[in-house]
Amino acid sequence: MFKTEKLKFDQALKEAQAREKAVENARNSSKAWDPKSNTLAEVYKILANEEKTKLRQKKSQINSKQGEFKCYRCNRSNHKTSECRFKNVKCNGCGKQGHIQAVCQSKPVNYIGEQSQAEDATSCQYSSKDEMTTTKHLFYHEDFFAIRAESKKTNATERADPEFLDVKLNDKLIAMEIDTGTYYSVISENFKERYFPNHRTETTNAILRGYDERVFKISGELRNIVVTLFNETRQLSCYVMSGTGPPLIGRQWLMALGCWPLSRLLNKMNDNKILKMNESNI
């Protein structure tokens, strides 16, 4: 600049300001694309978020066209996400609010397996009182609490022997152990072959989990069994499992037969005892 001949002050000032501006622009540009700077990371983050948003929108459009739009809170397609009844519940899988455990993406295993659980957990047909609680009760359907203690020395006064119900299964009187810790009713393969050798065992994709989350192997499902208890008759299904354990009647059958909650079962058992006593006195 100082080598320019006959340089005037105004011209020199403009030249200096222009060069200063150019240096400042170059510095800002270098900073914006410096890999160590936060600015570049923010640029990448914005671009990534925009790409994800476009992908979600495209997927939603495709699902909508195919009639398969599903609420991410409960995995159902019969309502808008903003209207989902589970938007205020807390997930039992990750503890976050706004979705149920069956669709939780924070856990490697989704607790979906039984048809009835999937229907109950995603139907969104609960009352406002239910909305205020967590969905923990929804996942009791798959629980199968198989806990048995073995001891050589047992104080007889502390024993709590199992209770049995005389249940008719296809007109065969069977003593079934009451198991309120499981939702489903279960019989063993040995029991099935002994009492229902000709009843077809259907395949099932149901999943039963123990107290420690261990998955139990299910051999199949017996469907359309005519079950009678306390003069109530229903067509029900039960699962067949390996082993030689006793037949268990769970909450699902008890509910279907009018014996659940537990107070109803106790009342019916008491009425049945009184009826038998009266019949014996006749």
TrEMBL record:
Residues 70-86, 90-106 form the CCHC-type domain. Gene3D superfamilies: Acid Proteases, Zinc finger, CCHC-type. Keywords: Endonuclease, Hydrolase, Nuclease, Nucleotidyltransferase, Transferase. One of its GO terms (molecular function) is nucleotidyltransferase activity. PANTHER family: PROTEIN CBG26694 (PTHR37984), PROTEIN NYNRIN-LIKE (PTHR37984:SF5). This is CCHC-type domain-containing protein. It comes from Trichogramma kaykai. The lineage of its organism: Eukaryota, Metazoa, Ecdysozoa, Arthropoda, Hexapoda.
